[in-house]
Amino acid sequence: MRANTRRFDVDTVYPVAKIALVLDALAAEGVPKEDVLKYAGLSEASLSSPATRVSLNQIVDFYRYAAEYSRDPHFAYHIGQRFHVSAYGMYGFAILSSINYRQTMQIAVKYHQFAMPLTAIEFTENNGYGIWLLNPVSHPRIDARLYKFIIEMKFGIFLSLHRDMIDLFFV
Length: 171
Description:
Blueprint: E1 12-15, H1 17-28, H2 33-40, H3 44-47, E2 53-55, H4 56-69, H5 75-80, H6 89-96, H7 101-111, E3 119-126, E4 129-136, H8 144-169
Antiparallel strand pairs: 1-2, 3-4
Helix pairs in contact: 1-4, 4-8, 6-7
């Protein structure tokens, strides 16, 4: 039997969309785009290609860079609010294809690792209330500052996605 050889820095399986949005926000704050691209090991052209994939380590490194160089204390949360369900490829399409809100939540939980690799999520209901649990995944390079950045960004993303879903199901 072969041992598990998966390494965080080898698997380039995640879309580059989140990095592109964060990069644009950093550039809007005056952080030179070329510096950020060099740090991330990406080119300008790769950011607009749907074929570009990044590793979990690249995402972690990039978020650490953003947390360090942004001047906005609420940067992660504000960035999270820029994400919309239509930016999530097939995952977003599956969510948009749901027949009701409950099914949407089931799909979001079941397949979220394809779009949000740094957090584990759960959704439960209790007395008519929906309850979300967000927990960053265990990763040797996530410290307290990055943990806070990830959680704040996820809250912003969740708010944005819920607004998209409310528009879809309740308007």
